[in-house]
Amino acid sequence: MTIKKFQGKTKEEALEKAKNEFGQGTVIMNIKEVKPKGMFKALKSSTYEVTAAMEEKEPYISAIGNPGAVSKPRESINLAADETLQIPQPQRTEEKVNLVEPRSATEAAKEIEAKILEKKEQMRQASSFDNTSKGLEERLENLSNILEKQLNAEEKQEKKAEPAPAKSESLGFIKMIYTTLLENEVNEKYANQVMDEIEKVMHNGNSVDYILSTVYQKMILKLGQPSPIEFSQKGPKVIFFIGPTGVGKTTTIAKIASKYKVEKGKKVAFLSADTYRIAATEQLRVYANILDAPMDIVYSAEELNDAVEKFAEYDLVFIDTAGFSHKNASQCEDMKNLIAGLDEAYEKEVYLVLSATTKYRDLLDIVDIYKQIADYKLIFTKLDETVCYGNILNIKLYSDAPLSYMTNGQNVPDDMEIFNTQKIVKQLLGGR
C-alpha cells in the first residue's frame, strides 16, 4: 500500500492532486486544515493537506511459467467466536546440548530468580492488554500522529530501531482487536479476514501501534471511498430511493435535497411513486413546500417519463418509491419495471436505504432481493439508534456496493453526511 500527502490552497485542490496521481482507486485517509504560523500568520491563508492511499496489488507468479518454484503453504488465523487466539509459530530446530562445568548453588538460584522475574514481567505486560476498550481507544485517539510518523521517511531513518514488543503483548493486543470487532457485530468471516491482515505484519517484530495503524488502513480500504450523487452532463439526474418500509427513505430524501438546494444552490424536484402508504405523498409534499421545490405523483412506469420531462431544466429529480417487504414478489417486479422504464436519455442513480438497526440475516436477504431490481449504492440510516456498526462493514463486503451517505437522527438537513469512513472504522475498533 502506497500512502502520500498532498497539499492545496483548497480542500478540492488537494483532493484533485491525490486523484490525479493515484487514479480512481484513491482512498482518502485524512483531511486536515493547516493553519499558517509565524509573525505574519494573520496575513496568510490556511492550506489543506490530504493523506491518500492506494492499495498495491501483489504480483502474480504463474506456476506454468516457473515450474521449478514450489509454493509454500502459509498458515492463517481462523477463529470462531469462542476459540482462543493462537498464532502459528515457526518450527524450532533442536538445540545442541553443551556440556559446561557444574555451577554453584548460589549461581543456579540467581538464574532461577531472574527467570521468575522475567516471567512476571511478561505476565504483567499481557494483563495490561486485557479485553477492555480503554487502551485501544487511547491508541486510536493518537492514530493520526502514528500515521504522520510513518509517512515521514526522514524521521524513520534518523530514529533508532525500537525493541520488538513481547509476544505476549502483541498477542493480548490482537485478541483485544478481535474481541472488539465481534462485540461490534462484525461477522466472524470478516473479522478473521482482519486477523489475516494482522498476521502478515505481526511476525516481523512490529510494535502494537504499527499493527493498529495497519488494521486501521486496511479497514478503510475495505469500506472504500464514499460515492455521493454525481451530476448529469445533460438534463436532470434522476435519483431513485428504494428500500424496505420504515427505514426513513422520505426523510433521507429531504435531507439530501436540502443539502444540494441550500448549500450548493442546485434546482431540485420531487416525484412520489409511493401510493401504498397512507400520507406518504403528503409527507414529501411538506418537505417540497419548505424547500420551495415542485412535486408530482406517478402511479405507473408509463407516467414516469412524462413527469421527468416536466423537470428538464432541473439538476436533480428525487423519486420516493414505496417501501415493501423483500418477500413480496409482485411489488418487487413493479419496482423493477418502474426503474427500468426510465428513458435512456436520462441519467439515473439508485440508492438502497437500509437501517443500521436491522438484523444481519434480514439485511442479507434484502440486499440480495434488491440486487435483482437494480444496481445500487448504499445509504445507512438510524446510526443514532444503535451502538454496533458491524453490519455496515458486513453488508459492504457482502454486496460490494459503494457506500454513499449515513444519517443519525430526524433533524432535516443536519443529521446527514457523506459516509464518514474514518469515523466508522474508529468506532468499529473501539473508539468513540
Explain the layout of strands and helices:
Elements: E1 2-8, H1 11-22, E2 27-34, E3 47-54, H2 105-127, H3 134-141, H4 143-151, H5 153-158, H6 167-183, H7 188-202, H8 208-223, E4 237-242, H9 249-263, E5 268-272, H10 280-290, E6 295-297, H11 301-310, E7 316-320, H12 329-340, E8 347-355, H13 360-371, E9 377-381, H14 390-399, E10 403-407, E11 416-418, H15 421-428
Parallel strand pairs: 4-7, 4-8, 5-6, 5-7, 8-9, 9-10
Antiparallel strand pairs: 1-3, 2-3, 10-11
Helix pairs in contact: 2-6, 6-7, 7-8, 8-15, 13-14
Which key phrases capture this entry?
single chain, 432 residues, alpha/beta, Rossmann fold, 3 domains, eight-stranded mixed beta sheet, three-stranded antiparallel beta sheet
- The tally of helices reads 15
CATH topology (fold) name of the largest domain: Rossmann fold
In terms of quaternary structure, the protein is single chain
Strand sequence of the main sheet, in spatial order?
A: 6-5-7-4-8-9-10-11
Beta strand % = 5-15%
- Overall geometric form: globular
Largest sheet: 8 strands, mixed
Question: What is the class of the largest domain in the CATH system?
Answer: Alpha Beta
Description:
There is one protein chain. The protein is of the alpha/beta class and 432 residues long. The protein folds into three domains: 2-54; 127-223, no CATH class; 237-428, 3-Layer(aba) Sandwich (Rossmann fold). Helices cover 43% and strands 15% of the residues. It has 15 helices and eleven strands. The chain has helices at 11-22, 105-127, 134-141, 143-151, 153-158, 167-183, 188-202, 208-223, 249-263, 280-290, 301-310, 329-340, 360-371, 390-399, 421-428, and strands spanning 2-8, 27-34, 47-54, 237-242, 268-272, 295-297, 316-320, 347-355, 377-381, 403-407, 416-418. Helix 7 crosses helix 8 (208-223). The longest helix is centred in the first third of the chain and has 23 residues, at 105-127. The radius of gyration is 27 Å and the shape is globular. The protein starts with a strand and ends with a helix. Mean pLDDT is 76; it is low at 58-102, 126-133 and 153-164.
